[in-house]
Amino acid sequence: MNRSKSRFVFDFAEGNKDQKDLLGGKGANLAEMVRLGLPVPPGFIVTTEACTEYFATGDFPAGLDEEISAHLAACEAAMGKTLGEANDPLLVAVRSGAKFSMPGMMETVLNVGLNDESVQGLATVAADPRFAWDSYRRLLQMFGSTVLGVDAEYFSAALGEQLLDQRVDKDQELSVASLQALVASYKAIIRNHAGRDFPQDPREQLDLAIRSVFDSWNTDRARLYRRQEKIPEDLGTAVNVLAMVFGNLGDGSGTGVAFTRDPATGNQGVYGDYLEDAQGEDVVAGIRNTLPLAALEAIDKDSYDQLLQIMDTLEKHYLDMCDVEFTIERGKLWMLQTRVGKRTPEAAFKLAVRFVDEGLIDMDEALRRVSGEQLTKLMFPGFEVNAAVDAIATGMGASPGAAVGKAVFDSATAVAWAQRGEDVILVRQETNPDDLHGMVVANGILTSRGGKTSHAAVVARGMGRTCVCGADDLQVDVNGKCFSLPDGSKVREGEVISIDGTSGEIFRGAIPFHDSIVVQHFEGSDHEESQLATAVARLLAHADRVRRLSVRANADTPEDAARARRFGAEGIGLCRTEHMFLGERRQLVEDLIVAEDDRERDLALEALLPLQREDFERIFAAMDGLPVTIRLLDPPLHEFLPNLTELSVEVALAREQGAPDERLRRLLSEVQRLHEQNPMLGLRGVRLGIIIPGLFAMQARAILEAAAAQTARGLEPRPEIMVPLVATTDELAVIKRQVEAVADSVRQETGYACDYKIGTMIELPRAALTAGQIAAHAEFFSFGTNDLTQMTWGFSRDDVEATFLPHYLDEGLLSVSPFDSLDVDGVGELVRMGVERGRLSRPDLRVGVCGEHGGDPVSIHFFEEIGLDYVSCSPFRAPVARLEAGRAVLLAKGA
Amino acid sequence: MNRSKSRFVFDFAEGNKDQKDLLGGKGANLAEMVRLGLPVPPGFIVTTEACTEYFATGDFPAGLDEEISAHLAACEAAMGKTLGEANDPLLVAVRSGAKFSMPGMMETVLNVGLNDESVQGLATVAADPRFAWDSYRRLLQMFGSTVLGVDAEYFSAALGEQLLDQRVDKDQELSVASLQALVASYKAIIRNHAGRDFPQDPREQLDLAIRSVFDSWNTDRARLYRRQEKIPEDLGTAVNVLAMVFGNLGDGSGTGVAFTRDPATGNQGVYGDYLEDAQGEDVVAGIRNTLPLAALEAIDKDSYDQLLQIMDTLEKHYLDMCDVEFTIERGKLWMLQTRVGKRTPEAAFKLAVRFVDEGLIDMDEALRRVSGEQLTKLMFPGFEVNAAVDAIATGMGASPGAAVGKAVFDSATAVAWAQRGEDVILVRQETNPDDLHGMVVANGILTSRGGKTSHAAVVARGMGRTCVCGADDLQVDVNGKCFSLPDGSKVREGEVISIDGTSGEIFRGAIPFHDSIVVQHFEGSDHEESQLATAVARLLAHADRVRRLSVRANADTPEDAARARRFGAEGIGLCRTEHMFLGERRQLVEDLIVAEDDRERDLALEALLPLQREDFERIFAAMDGLPVTIRLLDPPLHEFLPNLTELSVEVALAREQGAPDERLRRLLSEVQRLHEQNPMLGLRGVRLGIIIPGLFAMQARAILEAAAAQTARGLEPRPEIMVPLVATTDELAVIKRQVEAVADSVRQETGYACDYKIGTMIELPRAALTAGQIAAHAEFFSFGTNDLTQMTWGFSRDDVEATFLPHYLDEGLLSVSPFDSLDVDGVGELVRMGVERGRLSRPDLRVGVCGEHGGDPVSIHFFEEIGLDYVSCSPFRAPVARLEAGRAVLLAKGA
């Protein structure tokens, strides 16, 4: 490293708030306050670059020592004291300060500069020996555990012994002599367990403390936190060295935290806490009760007025709600920290519009300040936070919200009980498409198997239904209609339980909860104008104005379609027809599959036609005037048949009992014939349409006859027929010809020439690679990013969740599941390629995405970047997608 | 179509042999003979462009009529006769002639120009009324069925009636009167069944015949043939119109076919057949016995000498063995066709080197004239063609060759019987990795289920073992040790059967067969110098000189490795370690899988280490000095465990019988735990290495300890450690660090620092897309094109064979399975991208392919084009790969 080029230390007076990369968040904001002329204790910042150099070599970079000396000298000059000097020592705080806040994750060392001599000087200068010895005691404890790595338990034990000896309850009650005894035992503990004495040299204390803050970047808990919060590993932390100021020097001293306005609502006013004769850590420890900030006015009017003036300055400067930490040392106010205040999702929306209304920011800026992630949290009901009940078990929070109801163990019961007005929670080992009817009517779904991408989880998220899955402490006994807990106790059918889809917790009984105000607003069921709902609505309206991406919803039923419309979707981007083949229609599908000749097959298709047509008529009615993209039948046929293993056991047992059932045996043989080693890679999608003559033509006929019927009724249906799992252009061409023939015939039969489009899913890597050829036959592409992710990565959603994906996330081999957020480098590359090649061959190609990524905020920004026309997601995600699509435009333009 | 720009008709004198696209093969070669001054009947060619215009509009293109008239007039002038003229008619033959020969697939109409009047003239001019009426009768029959679409059966029936009436056996014996009667009944048949009279207008006959030849391009059988032979659909056919010449005008007339030299060996000499007083169709019909061509010398010395002179001219001109068709009409020789002669694979090799030895062509040209497809056929034994025995059943010819042996139904019996010197054929419903020991010792493998890409087929091809699979007429009863046929008869254990891996036929008893001379030569077991083996060896040696691609083999055992070396492989490109985990070691793998803690797992790994080390030592010995690429464990763990369905049935039955076996139950629970919906998309490859601590490190240790041991013995092992199924660069980095740690430790323990490389399979689309990042950690890439094809297309080899792939091939939705020949547009695009991106980030990256495509001739040319460093294929394919790698260089340069 060329020393002459780098500076590793900056004075607070040299930086500003935009230098968070180099100075860390805390340091940059301290520098900003100095720039504003606010009272900040003198000090300096060791930069993140010094930290990353230190990581690279294991030592301070060349020149850092000298730079620290120079800045320390400046600090000493400003304070008129010398670090650790015997008679009137300067003490400093050494605090971490990374670019992104990582609360509680990294180290702080206070009172650096105290030693056996300067403690005496401090006692004299402060005229408070107890204060001085207590400060020294705290330094030894903090330095010993943090810097020298001594187990904190030893210090706690010694303190406990001293309290016992002295027969007092709190350390504040210890006498100076006791504190001195404690200092002696702490020093002995350090000698014994760190293998060295506590360093009496103040500068050595400082250097070791700085290193220790650097090192704390790499603790396990810090790494884990960064993975969870998606903070890059290579940023490193800055270190702030500030002159100590003391709020614990008796009357006229104190410390506090404050907000520039109400952090929950954005209302103007005085919000904060104050603690007399205390240090910041005492506020955090919560041992003593704090006063409301307003009480400071009576205690120290000058400081109070000055603080309010400073907060006004800060808010006008940052144009946002800020929080601050301050200390008053014997009547003198010091600002120790400020930042744009953290806020709840609810507050974020309210604050953003409030600042607009006060003329401080415009709607663009307001939109930048809220996020889809926050809106998602506002879309679900939540349990009352003060309901302190213990969970009986915890699974994975798979679909957020709070649900209360009677436990039921099968769909039929769920439907029956729900029809008579009961709230139910459907409990299963795992769910499959057959459970859909039960899931629709249940308040929540609880499974003992499967992860966040299991059937239960995916479907529940799609429906906005609360779901806890993979609660493997539960032994679910579907036949016995109960589940058991590890302690042997049971929950039986009909017993009320509560599940928290965010935390994954499961409770006995009914926990009080509140509905989502935002959802009530969309549904038109909110009875009064709420401040939150208004804020959300205004910001969504603005997002709608600025966004380029259109937002559609994935909806398979007229009910979902209607809801999607209420939630602002501008069409259906994915209507899956397989759900229309379940329930009582399943028998018809079985007939279709086991048909022995053309006649039997045609009969089955004819029976399905009117049912499908009615489905589509109702959906077109709900989506009058908006496009409805209908995917032809996609899943492997055997999904409509019984499970091979279960059926094999059943047949073997029947045979053993001398009761060979011919029907069962024939069914088994059909199931065996259709069994595939890897159904995800087998006979599905367009392959079905090609292998089973008439299947797709029947579906096309149902769609176009329904469209004709609704046109006749004066509606404007806009069907888009989508062919799934296309790998070659010829597959699409074959189906397209069939659809065109059906369209001709429907036109002649009904006299209505209904406009329709035909297009394809792009969900195989080959389809993306050969998109240019495929676009010749497709009017639109819809990227199925779930399947595309499966094929590109070579892992199936169902299987990886159960095996290696959690391990990969834990180990940091992946920072996020590619099923949750689009893998831009791999899958995204194929999407980008597919869009480019498709449009090159057909410039007016409409391109969208209908995988779950369509509702993921991060992914939406990528879809905006590569110029998709629309995203389609579950109805509940549609507002989130609208918001993020708007934000994506603004953020792409730059702040 | 702009008439002034296009010519649709060419005179023979205007074309040459290189215009096959426009003039078709037959026409271009006729034109070439005219250019050489050889006696070709006058005539002209209607081009393929006229044909494709006709297909586009359904009618002759504008101007074609006039062009035909002009060329017909020239032809008439040359012959001094007029088409169909009453007294001395010109007759013409109308023959198809596509670019690629499609023997017997398309139509020919002879004697066009005869009608009720001209037949009289012909009788007079030829002085042979029987000849004239027989010619007319033949025209009516051919025109009626071919051009007018009358069922040929009617004509046959009428002819049969006439023969019966006249009490004669052959149509040659019919009198003129009988032939006249037959002409009358044929005309009646046409009138009744075609709905029109036979056209008496000669020009109308000609035009209809030309249309009919065009139309014959689109018959089902022609389409099917083109699909099989991979001839493009859009070429269309040319039509040749030649003046008729007659070999059936009595003594001094005749017809024949001949080769310019021995088509089987390339020896010079007179080879061909001659038939006196006959037309070409009589030779084909095989009713009369032909004379050897040499006999013509005695019959008509002038024509004989002229023919030999012409054949010499043709061979010197074409510089290749040609075949010809000729007719002698009353002492005048006419050449009707020539082309470069078709030849057997054996003859192709012999002819190529013979032409080199005669100084006619160079070795480059010789290499261009043989193909890997031909060499493949020479690598397998074959049944004697004259062994006329009926097959008892037919399956799919999955791995070519001929095998004879006693039927056995399990691997243990196969091994036991083979050890006592018996030839065995292993018969199974389908095979799995457990059958490997039986497959190794069996002469052939026969299964009743599974297609050409089933386990049995793939493994058999890899071992060069004959295999017939999917013989679904067989009911295989493994427990009963027999299989049944549809007629109820049975073949029991020990009965001798023969299977033909090319035709898929299965025979009772031992059919005589011969070994492959080429293989014997490679193996050094041929006892005399064969002409074929020498030719193959010389051409391979030349291919080795010119090729750029290196050729390696896929080999898992020391025996395979040694064979690969004998077959010219320059290293092992894929050594699969999973096969080393089977047989008696399976128990250790089970222990590893069900290990309940680290200690149990480490014990299992420790037990496997010495076994793996020994495997590698022996392989390194066999491949001394050559690179050996070893793939770490790849398949899903549950492949080493029992089948879920079978085990579930077993446990259920045991429970039913009151005999619950605790061990079985625990095994079932483990199998259930590891069960995956889509194992191909699950926990396998590098994911295993990351999830099971120590597994890959154990394998790396076995490899590096084996390398150290062999280095100590003075050998030069060159291990390359290959990580399978990598999706992200971090996965590779984790394993690489483990391997490096093991390498350090082995170096310290043994004192030998053995050179090794570490690299990765590129078999997931994501790996190809992010190859730039991955190359940062990989010294080599090996494209696993089997998996890459599965993921890119989204279908699994196992499943698609059983379901839609055959249908797709039949329907022309695919022209070839992408597992047989690389899909250049899709999968090839990823390979190309992976190579480019990988080399951009690491210019010295070594890149190869180790999927089955490595041995596919067509795919090898693609791999040459995109600059791979090597291909790796099964040992038996290595010579094919060497040959095609050489040809690829020559063909890329241009002929």
General description of the model:
The structure is a homodimer of 895-residue chains. In chain A, 46% of the residues lie in helices and 17% in strands. Chain A is of the alpha/beta class and 895 residues long. The longest helix of chain A has 25 residues, at 598-622. Chain A is elongated, with a radius of gyration of 33 Å. Chain A starts with 8 loop residues before the first strand and ends with a helix.
List the main descriptive attributes of the protein structure presented here.
homodimer; 895 residues; alpha/beta; 36 helices; 17% strand
- Residue-averaged pLDDT of chain A, rounded? 90
Count every helix of chain A, treating DSSP H or I runs of 4 or more residues as helices: 36
> Quick one: which chains have the greatest interface?
A-B, 58 and 57 residues
Largest beta-sheet details of chain A: 8 strands, mixed
How much strand content do the residues of chain A show?
15-25%
- Give the oligomeric state of the chains in this entry, treating copies of one chain as homo and distinct chains as hetero: homodimer
Strand order of the largest sheet of chain A: 14-24-23-16-17-18-19-15
Distance between the termini of chain A: 34 Å
Structural class of chain A: alpha/beta
Choose one word for the global shape of chain A. Answer: elongated
Helix content of chain A: 40-55%
Work out the radius of gyration of chain A: 33 Å
- Low-pLDDT windows of residues of chain A: none
